[in-house]
Every structure is written in C-alpha cells, then in structure tokens.
Amino acid sequence: MRWTLKPKPLDEDIQRLSTALNVDSLIAQLLLQRGISSFEEAKKFFRPELADLHDPFLMQDMDKAVARIQKAMANGENILVYGDYDVDGTTAVALLSSYLLVNYPNVATYIPDRYNEGYGVSYQGIDFAEDNDFTLIIALDCGIKAIEKVAYAKEKGIDFIICDHHRPGETIPEAAAVLDPKRNDCNYPYKELCGCGVGFKLIQALAATKGFGIETLTPYLDLVATAIAADIVPITGENRVLAYYGLQVINAAPRIGIKAIINQLKKTTLTITDVVFVIAPRINAAGRMKHGQHAVNLLTANNYQQAEQFAKEIEEFNTNRKGLDREITVEALQQIEELKEEDKFTSVVYKEHWHKGVIGIVASRLTETYYRPTLVFTKSGKKLAASARSVKGFDVYNALEACADCIEQFGGHKYAAGLTLSEEQYPTFKQKFETVVSNTIDAKLLTPELQIDAAIDLYQITPKLMRILKQFAPFGPGNMTPVFMTEKVKDTGYAKGVGQDEAHLKFSVTQNGSTPIGGIGFNLGKKLPLLKNNNSVAIAYTIDENEWNGVVSLQLKLKDLK
Predict the structure, then answer these.
(1) In angstroms, rounded to a whole number, what is the distance separating the alpha carbons of residues 217 and 351?
(2) What is the DSSP code (8-state) at residue 278?
(3) What CA–CA distance (Å, rounded) separates 389 from 404?
(4) Given this model, what pLDDT does residue 152 score?
(5) Which phi and psi (to 5°) does residue 316 adopt?
(6) Phi/psi at 142 (nearest 5 deg)?
(7) Please, where are the H alpha helices in 132-194?
(8) What span, in angstroms and rounded, lies between the C-alpha atoms of 294 and 308?
(9) I need a labelling partner for 108 at 20 to 30 A (CA). Which of 82, 281, 526, 556 fits?
(10) Average pLDDT over residues 438-462
(11) Does pTM surpass 0.85?
C-alpha cells in the first residue's frame, strides 16, 4: 500500500479560517482540504439546510417533465414508473410511485427482470405498457442511452420521461423530457446526483408547482439517503444535504419497509456506513437473487406485518447471495491462477454458469486480491454479460469505449460499468481490454493508495477533536473520514493477534511518553512483528469511539503501519 499525504494548504489560509471559525488549525486544515474556505461555506457544511437545495427547474427539461405529468393526470392516463433493479433504481421507483399515488390512482411500477430483460429500458417493458394501456413511462436510473427503445414506444403512442444520472452518448433519446445533470446542455449546478436524487428533484418540482415547500418531502429522504450511500456518489454539495436529512429520517421515522430491515439488526443509530453495508445489500439482494419488484414492495409497504414478511424474504435472498458470491469468487481466483494471469494489468474471467446477480460483487472481491481493472463475465441468454470494476484513478468506462468494436452495448460510470457481447467476441475483447489498460494506466495506480489528510502527534487526539470530527459526517466519496498519520510510535507491550486465526491486530501505543491509546487493525494481524522489540513505527489510522460496559473511550482504527 502506498501512502500519499494530501497537500497541506497554505499556512496563512489555515490561520485565516482557524480565526474565522474559532477552531484549531488542524480542523481548519481538514476543512480547506474539503474545499471549505469561508465561514459561510463552513456553516453550510456543518449545518446543512434543506433550503440549500437548488431550484429543480434549473435542470434542463424539468418544466417539460412537470407539464407532461400534469397533462397525464388531467387526462386520466395510466403512468408506469420504471426503474433499474439495483438499490438506486428500486428506491427511485418507490419514491416517485408513492409520491404520485398520494394524489393520483392510475400509477403502477415496473422493474425489469435482471435475467430475461437485462439492464435498463427493455422492449418487454414497453410491450407490457402497451398491453396495459400505459401512455406515459417515467424511467428512473436508466434510459439515457435508450434511443431505439424510446422511438419504439413512441410508435405505440407511449411517451417517456427519463430521469437518469449516467453519462449520455452522442445523442439524447427523443423523449417528452430527459432529466440528467450530466447532459452537456444542462446547466444544473450539481452534477453528482444519483438516479433516486434526480427522481427527488422531479417530486420537488411537482410539489413546488402546487405551492408545497421542500419540508413536505422530508419523509422521502430515507430512500434518497439509501440510494446515495449504495450508489457511491460523492457526499458533497446537494448530496450532503440529502444524505444528512435522510439519515435523520432513517434513525427517527423511517418508512415501514426500512424499519422492518433495521429491526432485524439490533442497532439503534445507523451511519452512512451502516446503510452501505447493512440496508443496501439487502435491498439489492432482491434484484440479484429473485426480482427487484420485491424490493419495491418492501419499500412501499403500508402495513408492518406485511413489511416484516417482505423483509424476511429479502433476508433469505441476502443469505443465499452471500453463499453464491463466496463460491464464485473462489472459482474466479482459481481461473486466474490456472491461466497464469496473476501478473497481467487486468482480470477478465468467465464461466457460463456464474450467477448474473452477483458478478458485480465478485468483480469487487477480485480487486481486493489483484488490485487492477476487473471484468467478470457470465452467460446471459445467447450473449455474455459482464460487470466491470476499476481501481482508484482509472476510468474503466473510457477503457470500454476504446474496445467498443468488440462490445454490443455498455454503460455506467468511471469506476463501475456493465456490458454485453457475443461469445465469439470474448477472446478478442479480453485481449484488447488488456492492451488498452496496459497502454493507458499509470503503473502506480495498480498499488492501492492510502490518502492521508494530516500528520499529527498522539497528544492532539482529544475528546474535543472527536466531537468536531463527528460533525464532518455523513462521510463518503468527496468527504471521507479523515485519515491521520503519526510517526515514531511504540507499542506499550500490549500488541497481539485477535479473532479467527489471529487475523486482526489489537494494540496500545505511545509517542515520546504520551498517554497510551489503544486501537484495532482489522486484517492486519500479519503486521504484529513490526510492533515487537520496542520498534519505532509509523501508523495510519482513523479515530473512533469504543463503547465498553457503558464507558466511551477513544481508539485508533488502524489502516496500515510501516
């Protein structure tokens, strides 16, 4: 692992902000590194307000989207709310459909089947709309590249409103409205919304036209915060406000479906990390193992007994998913070894029986072993389908674009994408992807990077510092939990391996005779020898609170030591 110390802002800037906010220089430094350089910006960061959200009508086509929905309601048209089967898609469908149903009965939901229809807008979905007299489809978290599908629907007299956040291709579909902050011609001030976030902007606009303020929409923010966490979008700007208030809703008054998941967990207060690792995988498991509609049913449930039943089913899907993803990861790692591909620039693996629902997770697992751009393929109908994952700093979407002549379709983001191709193209694609990556990647990106915010001394770690750091939450991309580095520390003689096979490292350290502070390093048990024999080491860590028998103490969560 390579440690990179973030550049320290200028001393005069640190001093100026430190004085303006009446905080110590370390806090001022951390804020400047997050792009916060004035009292006003700090106030928005520490005290997010719903009033800070942008006017939804700044988004290209928002007026058209609102007008088309109003027309549909005035004419008694049937509206189909259509979304992808992942967390972002299912939360967005739950959000928009439940909002519309408050005042208008002719609304139904549609989630494509991952196995029969694949990702995004499908011809089957449009045929379903035609057979059931839907004349308006609102597509969430998908649709920005569905040019032929939108044209096909138009021939059948069905209009589309697209709410997406993926990168558009050369042309935009000819829909009644296309909401996507990443459109080149869209001047919306914040570009990093998730699909559910774009759906939220649509209900914000609909509410505003009826004279309702943003506070009336607070109950929907548990869904938005869940999507922001799961889709790993930056928790900056508008997303920070939505995540901040969404977490409050999750902890104080979540919808029945989310409550049913939380009640199985025996946890009182959830952080964004809990949402990422606890709520999101369960919602995702429905679309991975069975059908995404199960997730929508859970998230829109009105009756607690029913929600509990749905949550139980989803818990089972999640347990099955865990077993499968472990199994396939083992097979994929074996394949890399058998083909002697341990030293390549990419991991590209394929078996036709691998479960399509978990190949994205397996791709992420493989990058934990071989830190490099990774694709996991399986058979899907007559085609091969893959999930792509990248490493920090490398744009896998651009790499796929360079291989477009061997791919049938692809879409996604810088760090995660999906694609399909014909089986004959697999060997050509695999070779070409390796060539493109090896020619374009900076070799240092193939070693995981640990970004360190600041070098500090142990005496600076105080309960007061912790109180302020907690106010930096919610953490996530663009606002990660601060990582600190301290040099010349020594073990107090307490270090030992703990857990199964002593995989984890428990320790207590001191620096130049400072008060000892304890900590834990998960999966760092093998580094125990470094702390022996009174060695002086450098440690990289985050600061955490540990509660034991009702007593709260500060501890270090070790990231690495050398």
Answers:
(1) 46
(2) I
(3) 17
(4) 97
(5) -65, -45
(6) -165, 170
(7) 147-155
(8) 12
(9) 281
(10) 95
(11) yes
